[in-house]
Amino acid sequence: MSPMSSSPNSSSSSSATGFPSLHDVPCHVEVVLGTRTICVRECLEMQTGAIFKIDQPAGADMTLTINGVPVAMGEVLVVDDHTSVRVTEVLPAPRGEVL
Questions:
Q1: SS3 (DSSP) at 66
Q2: Which CATH number covers residue 73?
Q3: Which candidate among 5, 66, 70, 72 keeps its CA 20 to 30 Å from the CA of 35?
Q4: Which own/partner contact pairs does 34-38 have at CB distance under 8 Å and 24+ positions apart?
Q5: Contacts from 42-46 at CB under 8 Å and sequence distance 24+?
Q6: Burial degree of 22 (CB within 10 A; 0-12, 13-18, 19+)
Q7: From CA 92, how far away is CA 70, in angstroms rounded?
Q8: Percent of the chain having pLDDT more than 90?
Q9: Which domain, by its residues, includes 37?
């Protein structure tokens, strides 16, 4: 089983941090396809079917964030009728933070 798909109830008998219960703390994971800045007028005029070009080039990897911190890059896959993300690169921890 891959690290990103491990069960939230799984735990390890030992932990590098010394706190095995931390393994079960939920983390909010987001997959960011791309970004764009728009003005308030565009937000107010938005309708169903609107199309917004984003800064990300077609085919580029997406950013995976955990609790708002970018931790990896990945590509979209369809696995068993579910949209999934394959990690293509694990990013270094931001300065002063331990992930």
A1: strand
A2: 2.30.330.10
A3: 5
A4: 34/60, 34/62
A5: none
A6: exposed
A7: 9
A8: 44
A9: 23-90
